Amino acid sequence: MRYRLLGRTGLRVSEIFLGAMTFAEPHESRRVLDTYADAGGNVVDTASAYGESESVLGGLLRGRRDRFVLATKYTLSRDASDPNGAGNHRKNLRLSLERSLRRLETDHVDLYWVHLWDRYTPLEETMRALDDAVRAGKVLYVGISDAPAWVVARANALAEWRDWTPFAGVQVPYNLLQRDIERELLPMADACGLSVAAWAPLARGVLSGRYSGPGPAAAGRVDPSGLGDRDHTAAAAVRAVADEVGATPAQVALAWTMARSAAVHPLVGVSSADQLRENLGAVDVELPEAALRRLEVAVSFDVGFPGDFIAECEPSPFVFGDADMSLVRRPGGSLDRSRYRP
């Protein structure tokens, strides 16, 4: 396992994050966590709304808590009958964090995620409350999950202006079948230096071949009868590339997300240590350029406006005149304007 820095911080985080949403039975959960740790993984992600996950994880971390980057989330309802039992406001943040700390058996979390954008709470309130938690030593770094790009950018601009703790990462769905973040969120993360935790990197198992391989479909989180041609086409393309490179479909699907941007960390949730061991093998899979292109064109995806429109305008003399616009692109895909040659 290799390591990268979390956003614009000095925190070292492993290439693949472990999702603890499925942690319920301590014995198998311990095997999963041990397998992840033995491979060099160090980021374990849970949430206040994931049932017994925090409590189970807290018990499993006894005696080795500081070896992990422990992440949890708040926003979702603690009490459906309480109008203040959910949301990103200060009261819910404080109560959710205190409950998470008790469950996790720790005095701080390393990474605290806003679980979902709350349109009713001002961003100023959320960012200030998060900064207070950081200054109190109960949180070290903060991030946000499932929010529009403009919300993340505005929140970090507020943090910069007011000397508050900015978001170091975003958590979003990303896989070959769901590439929406390439429109705004991924370019924003690249420009702002944010890490990207990609949830559902296997599209709930569709890209692992579980529902499209030879023989009857295996049991899982998806009803195979609800899958369409697009799903099966993507799964078949992943399987074909996997056969060529000597890997499993799951490993290829995960490697594809990491190949798209150095900022992307697949967030894998598994039901067994064997499944995790297979997924972790993705770090050793290198996909040739031809294979990457085949995967990307296997199913249709349009960036849409304004991305496609701007890309069409870039080479036009009508827009930039006769200047040589030989802009060199950085690995993440953004333009390296320092090397613009007029």
UniProtKB/TrEMBL annotation:
It comes from the Bacteria. The keyword Oxidoreductase applies. SUPFAM superfamilies: NAD(P)-linked oxidoreductase. Keywords: Oxidoreductase. Pfam families: Aldo_ket_red. GO terms for molecular function: oxidoreductase activity. InterPro entries: AKR, AKR_Detox_Biosynth, NAD(P)_OxRdtase_dom_sf, NADP_OxRdtase_dom. One of its GO terms (cellular component) is cytosol. Residues 16-296 form the NADP-dependent oxidoreductase domain. PANTHER family: NAD(P)-LINKED OXIDOREDUCTASE SUPERFAMILY PROTEIN, NADH-SPECIFIC METHYLGLYOXAL REDUCTASE-RELATED. This is Aryl-alcohol dehydrogenase-like predicted oxidoreductase.
